[in-house]
Amino acid sequence: MQQNDLSLPSGCVLRRATSGDMWSIRWLVFSAKLDPTQLHWQQFWVIECEEKLAACGQLRQFSGVQELGSLVVTPAWRGHGLATFLVQHLLNTATQPLYLECLGQGLVEFYSRFGFVPISFPDLPSSLKLKFRWSELAKKLMRVPVVFMKYQQQC
Ligand SMILES: CC(C)(COP(=O)(O)OP(=O)(O)OC[C@H]1O[C@@H](n2cnc3c(N)ncnc32)[C@H](O)[C@@H]1OP(=O)(O)O)[C@@H](O)C(=O)NCCC(=O)NCCS
After folding, report:
1. Which of helix, strand or coil describes residue 72?
2. What are the pLDDT digits (tens) for 5-25?
3. Can you give the pTM of this predicted structure?
4. Residue nearest to atom 36 of ligand 1 (CA)
5. Hey, which of 68, 110, 146 would you mutate to test ligand 1's pocket, going by the most ligand atoms within 8 Å of its Cβ?
């Protein structure tokens, strides 16, 4: 999937987040019950539609790797390709090996389209093992359907 083939709905623009987006980003992430760590606006890209924040996503920094995270689209704008556009953009801007964690088969299929593949906890780099250890525990003890994924460049 190449970003050149993708487009945003009219009235929507992709841009870097600014300090003025901080509370909207936090609200989007909290309301989607996503990981509340490293919500630094400097790491975020957002999509604004009709002058309102409609989507956000970021690349978290770890030692030698990055994590694609905080991907949220407001309910009103879901199903219009915003997440697809944003993920492709984040892939294009990533500078280090890229990982993510997600919940459930639906999202695994969504991320597989971009070239992410499921990997097991022992195969994670050590900096992410530290971060994802609670998810792994919840997966083992409570059967929470967490999946760890690594981006593999597509040919
Ligand atoms: C997941 C999310 C970001 C997708 O945003 P979106 O802008 O609606 O996604 P897109 O329009 O780009 O959808 C692309 C495709 O993925 C599919 N898809 C998206 N989310 C999905 C999910 N949770 N389960 C199954 N399929 C999903 C869509 O059906 C669509 O399929 P299609 O192209 O065949 O129609 C959005 O539903 C959301 O914010 N969810 C809550 C937060 C969340 O779970 N974030 C992911 C954290 S890992």
Report:
1. strand
2. 789 999 999 999 999 999 999
3. 0.94
4. 73
5. 110
Q: How far apart are CA 88 and CA 85, in angstroms?
A: 5
125 Cβ inside 6 Å of ligand 1 = no
Q: Does domain 3-151 have CATH number 3.40.630.30?
A: yes
Take atom 15 of ligand 1 and give the residue whose Cα is closest.
110
Q: Is the CB of 9 under 6 A from ligand 1?
A: no
Residue 78 in contact with ligand 1 by CB distance below 6 A: yes
Among residues 65, 70, 20, which one has the least CA distance to residue 44?
70
Across the range 89-106, mean pLDDT stands at: 97
Q: Is 24 helix (H, G, I), strand (E, B) or coil?
A: helix
What pairs with residue 119 in β-bridges? Answer: 148
Domain boundaries, given as residue ranges, for the chain: 3-151
